[in-house]
Structures are given as C-alpha cells and as structure tokens.
Amino acid sequence: MKISILLPYKENFSPNYAGAVSLFVNDITKISKYKNLVNIYGSTKFKKQFNLKYHNLKLPNDFIKSQSKAYIEEFVKEEKIKNSNIIEIHNRPTYLLYLIKKNINSKFILYFHNDPLTMRGSKTVNERIFLIKNCSKIVFNSQWSKKRFLNNIQSRFYNSEKLIIIYQSASKEKINFKTKKKWITFVGKLNKAKGYDIFGKAIIRILEKYPKWKALVIGDERRESMIFKHKNLKLFGFQTHNKVLNIFKQSSIAVVCSRWDEPLGRTSLEASSNGCAVIISNKGGLPETITNGIILKNLNENELFNEIDFLIKNVKIRKNYQRLSNKNFVHTNKKSSKEVDLYRDLILKPVKFSPKIIKNFESLRILHITNFNERHDGRLFFNTGRRINNGFIRLGHSVLELSDRDVLKNSKNINDFNGSKKLNSKILNVCNNFRPDLIVLGHADLVTANTLNEIKNIHSDVKIAQWFLDPLNKNGPDFNKNKNRIFDKFEYVDASFLTTSPSALKFINKKDNFYFIPNPTDPAFERLNNFQNYCEMDVFYAISHGVHRGNLKIGKYDERQKFLEQLIEKTPGTKFDIYGLNKIQPIWGDSFLKAISKSRMGLNLSRGEPIKYYSSDRIAQIIGNGLLTLIDEKTFYRDFFNDNEMIFYKNMNDLSEKIMKYKNNNDSKKIAENGKKKYTKYFNSNLVADFIISKTLAIHSKNRFLWHK
To answer: For domain 355-516, is the CATH number 3.40.50.2000?
Structure first.
C-alpha cells in the first residue's frame, strides 16, 4: 500500500520558508499511522527539508515548456513506477485532470487550501462537478471554502460524504500565562489584503497611549511598501515557523485583520492554540479558527484601536480570553491527522457490510425501484415487487419505494417522449436526498446505465441489485429481449436475482453474481387455506396477455390455450375454472382472490418450454393459498418438494390422470397443506428480501435458504 502526496509547484517543503500547505502536510504526516507508507513530492530550492520521505522532483531546463507542466509530468513518471493506492493533491485542481488523462488509476484526494472559485480547474460549475465525479474525497479547510465550492451546484451532483472538512491545525500548547508579555503580534504579508495598513495606523496610536506595550510584526511583502515606525514597533521580517510559535507563546494579543476572505487563517489558529487574546475580522473562514476571541464588527482603524484598547485596560477579560482560547482549542494536529487517516482507512481497508454493522445501523436505507402500479388503482396490488418490498420492511429496513412506470406515465411530453429523462433525473435527486445504502431494481428497464454510473461516482459506497421475473428459456417468449434486459445495466449491478436457475442459462458466466430466487409468498397476501374448505371447482388457471394491459388482445394466440383445450378434453367430468380462454377476460385484485378460493387444485403452467426452477408468480398465489399445486417435473422443483407437498406431472396425459386421481381424493388436502406449510416457511418474502441483501452486500445471513445451492 502506497500513498503519494503531491504539493503545489514551488511549495517549499522546508522549515526555512514553509507555506501553510507544507506546514499542514508535515504536521499531519509525522503523526499519521500511515507515515511509513507516505511519499511526499514537491519542488523546493531549499536544501533543508522536513524530516519525512520527501522527493524533490528535478525539472528539465526547458525555457519553452511551462515549469508547472514539467513538474506534473515528472510526477507522472514517478507514479508510473510507484502505482500508489492513493494520491493526495494539494491546492491544484488542474493536476487531477492531467493525471486522469495519463491513465493514473489511483484513488484521488483533492485538498483546497484556497478559495475554489479563484483557482484554475475549479472556477466553473462543470469543472467542479468533474472534480466531484473523479475524486474519492475533496477536502476543504473550512466550511466557508466548502460553501464556495458548492456555489451554484445542484445537490443531485454531489454526495455530502465525499466533500469533507479537515481543518488546518496546530499543536495545543501548555502555556504559562504568567510569562505572557505585553506584546501585540501581527503575522502575515504586510499588505492591504491582510489589513496591515489598518493594523499599522491603529497600533501607532496604541503604542503612543501605552508606552509599556510593544508591537511585533512578522512577515514581508515585496510588492507593496507600507512603513510604520515607532520605537516600540519591531519588524522581524520572515521568520521560521518555530520562531513564530515561540513569539505567540509570549504574546498577549494577536491581530488578524484581513480584508480578503481568508479560506481559514493559520495565524489566528496558531495564536489561539498558544493562548493569545485574538482579534480577527469577520472574513472568509477566519471565525472558524477560534473558539473564544473578538470579531471586529467593522473593519477599520478606529474599531481595531478600540478593541485593542479594551483588552489592554481590562486585564481580567484579556486573561480570560487567553485561557479560553487555549483551553477550548479544537483544531489540533492529532484530530486532523486522525480524520485524514480515517478516509485512508476506508480506501485502503474498505469495511464490508456485516450483520454487526447492519445492527449498528439499526436499518439499511433501501431505494426500491420497480412498478408499484399506482396508476392501476389497486388492480395489480398483489404482485412480487410488493412482496419483496414487504420483506425489506419486515426486516426492519427503511425503504423508499419509487414506481418507475408511474413516473414515466406522468412525465411524457414532447421533449421527453417516454418520460425517461424525468425518471432518471428524479432517481439522482432521490439518491442525493435519501442516501440509500442499497438500490434494488425490479424490471426498471428505463433506468439507464449512465444514471447508475453517476450514482456510483457520487455515492461510491452504494450497492445495487436487480431482480428479474420473466422467462429466460431460449425456446420461450421474448428470449433475446429478456436477456438484453438483464445485461443492460450489468456493469453497475453488484448482484442479479432471477426466477430461473442461473445454472440452466448458458449465456451466464458462473463467476458473475447471478442467483436464483423463488417467487415469494407473503403472509399479508396469501391468506387463504383452501385445503380446509369445500371447493366447488376442481382446477384453477388464469391467462393474461400482459398484466398492464388488463384484458385479452384480439387476434393474439398463446400456446397455453391449445394445451388447456386438450387437457379439458382429456379430463372429462372435471370442473375447470379458467380465465383468459374462450373470450373469458382475465381477473385481477380481489376478484382473483375470490376466484382462486373456489378451487381445490391450481395448475402452475408457464409460457414456453419448462426450464430449471422457472415459474411465473402464480406458483406463490396457488400454493400460498392452500391449493394442491400441479407442476411440470421438468422445472426441477423436486429439488425442494416431494410428492407429499406438490404433484409433479411428466406430460399432458400424466397431468390429466393426476387431476382425475386427486380431485376427489382426501389425500389432496393434506398434500396441499404440506405444500403451503413448506413454501411459506422457506420461500417467503422475508427470506427472499434477506437473501437479496446478504448476497448483494456480501454478508453472512443466519437464515437457511433452501433454494440456494
């Protein structure tokens, strides 16, 4: 495992002239548990460097090529050899674009130490969305910086957990407040942006009024010249970091009166940690650097003079500010280093879901996208999607249902012909607001692969599952169409669940995460016990030409019609209750349940040739309501049930004979009872929901799944 830290070009990783980035990287890395894995890359002219694994990139003497570009090119050469797991880029968004173009496949962390809206590579909304998509984490040094980054970016484009704040930090020092001197300290560039002109004018007046006090100014500025002179005003120029800290330890008051919006402000941070009474302007992230201090209401000479004057005159208040600044200081190196190591942990040692973790979560957040048939006014309420959904809920998970077909139906317009644009946009917004741990798709054909890709980019921890109920027999209906449907989004799906045994499908690779699930029963749906009651009809069966259509399609022929007609002819004296045949329209909802309650037996006949384990959801309705279930033995359901639980037939003649045998046989009631008891125990919606979760999240379940071999 390797971690590379890339500093900005010309950043001096040296105690002789260290900038804020180098100080942060040094302070955090030297106490990190990953210290020995970290390699730091930079370009500094100073021979003395911080005592870490630092590599000074040597740049070619090329007067035509940009030195900054040469710098990143040299880093790429190093990285091609190193192949780091993580690359942490500090303060240069443009470096990320170059690394991606050069096919560097590490996990990228981007740090912002300045205002993102002023930096090349993050000024526009599209540039910042690109950064979000391609970084594992983006780290800001203040809430202010993060808010600037999110300027005009819609919430659908980002994951709040991907954008984190890790403050620049300092050591929390033990201060002897009795040794504090009558010093007022200013540290920073001596220019108007830092408010040095305001400080200079105010401090001259203070020193005139209080001759026992001194002002110490540390810093330089080559571009501006502001000269303030007084016998008690000491100009030190640029000093090493250790000398600055030593001065803060002895200072009573520190002033940071910037005009510009400082993203954070290391000076006020360190002054606070060293027990100074700190006066700051209300700019950028400066207020986030202190816990106890004075924030200037108006940034001008008189306001600053009055606040310094107040602290000098009120000794108890000044000393109270000093003690509380140090006591309540929170942005410590230790804290920031732990926060850095935490995201490294998640990348280098990803935490897998486990029953313990799920228990700690109390519940998973599941976004279940399938057709909940709201537009059909309850006609199709009793469907497999709702059964699985009930299972998720009973297991204690938070489930958000999104009915894709209803969204599509209500969203069609000239610019969005089938409503898919609205659907996919809605899903992205839902994911951002709900933050699911697991997305489950059921026949959600118009959810695009691009949408899932975007979700994975934004919410890297989310898992995605799909379930599919339609036949996949090569000699069955819509084979190629159905096959394409399950592979349409396969690249972004962590596990797929079929009502056909994957072992019977030659087009599925055994290494892919395909699993068989039965059509589940649900205790809220399958409430009949026909084996306990007198049933006036012998055999129930229902055909439809599509559940959404609702009625028979004129001129359409279903191969099951011929089978049923021949079966009726071969089984005289048998009372068949068949719908969808001979112009008798299909039945739905409560009418379906009332019809099924009148039959002793139910025929489980699916379209196409039988294939291992496949059945439509009628099997759950038949056996779950206590009907004696008749099923083709070529479905291999003998793997789960015996002759005392289901009736298996070899062909039409065999089926006819068994119908004749059991229609007046009292043993049929016991077989039907046994079948319901076993099916509802091992093939229920709770177990199917648990199986989907456990396989998708790759966790162990305490439940025994009879169908999983």
So the answer is: yes
